[in-house]
Amino acid sequence: MQRAFYFSMCNLTRIAPTPSGFIHTGNAINFILTYALARHTNAKIELRIDDIDQNRSKDIYIEDIFETLEWLRLDWDLGAIDKNDFLKNYSFINKQKTLFEAISSLWHKNPDIFYICKCSRKKIGGIYHGDCIKSKLKLKKGESALRLHIDKNTGITLGNKYIDLYSIFGDIALWQKEDFCSYQFASLFADEKHKTNLIVRGDDLFNSTALQLYMARLFGFENFLKTTFVHHALIFDKSGLKLSKSNSSSALLSWRKNGKKPNELFQKAAQMMGVREFWKINTKEDILACGNELELFLKTNGQRLNLA
């Protein structure tokens, strides 16, 4: 059965918001889908708050994550229990030394695919293809970044879609000029270390999945290569734009302040899953009762890298 292929291998997933703005409806629907798939498959859930971008992370947004999950009545098995616990024991900001050591180890094992770059974002302007690759610079805080070189014709096939990593990403910075790790490596490293093997993401992160799979294969991250990925549809505003944390009008903070219940969010998640009478789904218990739809949703949307 297809269920045995996907579901028997799902041991751990994560809810992994970034505290760069208030949680919006798209984030919440991702939380609900992740929760439903995890509980249906008996996979554990880790709450992993990705405060990787130190310039955008704020305590008020971290608090909003916990308040939103409580409002949705979604529980988790691993990770911080509140903001203070997170800041003390789980923040990526406190893991920069470990992340740098991991990148440095890979750098020394594979020196030909890494190089130091001094180019500014303003100078680059778009996709970067290695002006500094032969410069032999030294890594200096505030002056240079460590990049991973991606050759022409480098890509990943995921499902039935080919992702041209050279054209989409170019040579990506794994360690930033500002002296902290990039999202792409930090997320990949955490998933590999924690042995996450079910990841539920929006369609906008499909290319990121391909990039991280490429890096996992390059770096020998065997667990990540066996992960099942579920990419779901995005939520758009009335003007047809993808919801963004920079747009406060889409934040759920106002829902909670106005005493609004999250019924609509569970209904939208159920609709994405293919539940016919989705308007009857109002709680996590309702959505967990949709076992057949959950199985079909994972069967239809679950993807793994072809390792053959």
General description of the model:
By secondary structure, the chain is of the alpha/beta class. The protein has a single domain, classed as HUPs (Rossmann fold, 3-Layer(aba) Sandwich), CATH 3.40.50. Helices cover 42% and strands 14% of the residues. The protein has 14 helices and 11 strands. The strands form 4 sheets. It has a 3-stranded parallel sheet, with helices on one face. The N terminus is likely disordered.
Task: Please state the CA-atom Rg, rounded to the nearest Å.
Answer: 20 Å
Secondary-structure element order, as H and E?
HEHEHEHHEHEEEHEHEHHEHHHHE
End-to-end CA span: 21 Å
The tally of strands reads 11
Number of domains: 1
- The portion of residues forming beta strands comes to 5-15%
Largest sheet: 3 strands, parallel
Sheet with the most strands: spatial strand order? 1-2-3
Mean pLDDT, rounded to whole units? Answer: 91
Write the layout of secondary structure elements.
Blueprint: H1 2-7, E1 12-15, H2 25-41, E2 44-47, H3 59-72, E3 78-79, H4 83-89, H5 96-109, E4 114-117, H6 121-124, E5 145-148, E6 155-158, E7 161-164, H7 165-168, E8 172-175, H8 183-194, E9 198-202, H9 206-219, H10 222-225, E10 228-232, H11 253-257, H12 263-273, H13 284-288, H14 291-301, E11 302-303
Parallel strand pairs: 1-2, 2-3, 9-10
Antiparallel strand pairs: 4-5, 5-8, 6-7, 10-11
